[in-house]
Amino acid sequence: MKRYFDLDSWNIVQNYFKDEDNEFCESIFSIGNGYMGQRGNFEEDYTGESLQGSYMAGIYYPDKTRVGWWKNGYPEYFAKVINSTNWIGIKVEVNGENMDIAKGEIEEFKRVLNMKEGYLLREVVLKYKGKRIQIKSKRFVSVKDKEIGVLRYSITPLDFDCEVCFLPYLDGDIKNKDANYGEKFWDEVSKKIEDDRAQLVIKTKKLDFYLCSSMKYDVFKNGEKCNVEYENIEKNKFVGSKIKLKVKRSEEVEIFKYVSNVTSRDFLVTDLIDKGNEILARALKKGFDKLIYEQREALKDKWEKSDIVIEGDEEAQQAIRYNIFQLNQTYTGEDSRLNIGPKGFTGEKYGGSTYWDTEAYCLPFYLATEDMSVARNLLLYRHNQLGRAKENAKKLGFKKGALYPMVTMNGEECHNEWEITFEEIHRNGAIAYAIYRYTNYTGDTEYLFKYGIEVLVEISRFWEERVSFSEEKNQYVILGVTGPNEYENNVNNNWYTNRIAVWTLEYTVKVLEEFKENIKLKVAEEEISKWKDIIANMYYPKNDKLDIFLQQEGYMDKEQLTVEDIPKEERPINQNWSWDRILRSCFIKQADVLQGMYFFQHLYDEDTIRRNFDFYEPKTVHESSLSPCVHSILACKLKRPDKAYELFLRTARLDLDNYNNDTEDGCHITSMAGTWMSVVEGFGGFKVENNMISLSPILPSKWKEFSFRIVFREVMLMVRVSENVIEVENESDKELELIIVGNEYKVDGGKNISVNR
Ligand code: BGC
């Protein structure tokens, strides 16, 4: 495995520079605050390999779908989180020559993502046209003041006197790399430039999202503020000003650039400019040092709730922190219109849209590390889109019920890969399961009675219509689906889909019957009895000889191989085999039957899980980043710490080690939540059952100790697991009853207990 970065528990440090790794590193060094995000691009010009990327949460573009042969049901558009104004840019000229790092010789290079304090740092010594120049930059997007981004950038000519010209700018003339027709998505609305301030307002060509970026800069030489002259530059969708300074050898000239980005998602279009100015003024009043202090404090708070400490394994420690850092940068949960794109703010792939990833993978992290309003907002997002999900079902020919899209921004289906994914109706089940998970964790019945139940009923109605009755089997079947394993499409009776459909019906009926008095929504008796009939008579494919659930009918007709049989040079198969060959093979992209074993652990005994794991895991190529984490958790359950650790490390370091060779497209944010699950639910054996926390930890041999915090119904717990002891500290003032390795304990507020392992 190639190592790109130094091992360091709180920092990601890049100590070398290679053009061919640059786009990958730009993804890794992304910063964000849930409201906006920025790839690790250079501030100055760089004409080498680079994807300039600056993204605003919830601002998207409905790019017209690109397909060969249009079929009924195709989504009209593919939504894309859109690359917006480059607000970090500073062009630099030295003695009249534009400085382009790609054209210089890099003598020293260091890029550091400080995860503890939440900033990105870069230090370079560049030989340019025979002269040595030192460049330093530090930047962050404020976690406290979401619309603010700030940077400090400096140049020191190391062995010559020169004239330095800075050109700080705002550039809205930006293209999405993944635009289907190469089209630019933004139009200019207005721009203004005055002395050391500039403002640019742009608007999307469709949907009318407005973005107003405002900047102000200050220039310093040797720490003293300079009074400089400006030459203003205005072009289409571009504003900036040139500032020229005479600089002696070893003198440092620095520029502080303060920016506010405000959008019409949050403010009236007519107020945008004033709001932009107001927020910028707030940033200026605080200044760089105060803003960075606030950033440190905000990050401290986040880490206090979500940090995981692993003793004895630097590789794992760095990786888990990186995963948590990115999750906290991507979604902060104040706004129920927002969700979590598979790449967060780190790239364009997957369009920044919402997938089942949120419900199946991300929810547990936010549930356990934040106030419950954060996870609730993720659920409300789907409730708000219920009407669209019903429309979506209608469009596909259903008379009733709701089918949530596989990919969405506003509730409408908008997937580019429609051919593969439209039959992945299992997504509907994950949304129902998330409602159960949330309610089970928080006890928030108010949500369940008012919102959750509406979603459950409509999803159940969908399943009712989507199943069919097989006369031959005398049972219900679900035909023509794609399971989570996308390496097989249009299969009949995918076990996972049948199982989650029935589970949804069971849960919905249970909620309706148990809380009859509390729920206003009325469902007809005939409907409920139809659901019960489906529950009782669903067909599940299985293999009696092996005593396992069968992924789908006909799976055993395939040549039964294991991943060991694939030559190393042919992996990943999705980059080396034809699609036809993949579809015919027995190889599984990601957990499918085992996804069900994970969700429904409480419903199956350990032997059943073991038999299915032993059959399916060796056939799984884990070519979805979402795969290893689920397998790691199941391996923990089966008390196989070595296997669990191997899979954990794969998920945890997936991006840092560029395991799937695709991180240049962006980091796998949603799978990062799976990494968290593998530690807390896997090694920690954490679950919530009957309103109680339960822990049954195992320790990988490499770890001396690990600890994590959990917020559970207003109680904050610290769990520490070492070779001999499990220690639980109740950091709140409320008493807590919990189960540790099968036994019940009571921990008073402010107290801790230790249980021998
Ligand atoms: C996986 C899906 C997932 C999507 C986005 C695909 O590769 O197969 O399950 O929803 O990526 O992460």
UniProtKB/TrEMBL annotation:
MF GO annotations: carbohydrate binding; hydrolase activity, hydrolyzing O-glycosyl compounds; maltose phosphorylase activity
Keyword set includes Lyase: no
GO BP term, pick one: carbohydrate metabolic process
Family matches, as Gene3D superfamilies: 1.50.10.10, Glycoside hydrolase, family 65, N-terminal domain, Maltose phosphorylase, domain 3
Entry's transmembrane regions: none
SUPFAM superfamilies: Galactose mutarotase-like (SSF74650), Six-hairpin glycosidases (SSF48208)
E.C. code: 2.4.1.8
InterPro entries: 6-hairpin_glycosidase_sf, 6hp_glycosidase-like_sf, Gal_mutarotase_sf_dom, GH65_N, Glyco_hydro_65_C, Glyco_hydro_65_M, Glyco_hydro_65_N, Malt_Pase/Glycosyl_Hdrlase
Keywords (A to Z) from UniProt: Glycosyltransferase, Transferase
Protein family membership: Belongs to the glycosyl hydrolase 65 family.
PANTHER family per UniProt: GLYCOSYL HYDROLASE-RELATED (PTHR11051), MALTOSE PHOSPHORYLASE (PTHR11051:SF14)
The name this protein goes by in its record: Maltose phosphorylase
Species in which this protein is naturally found: Clostridium felsineum
Gene name per UniProt: malP
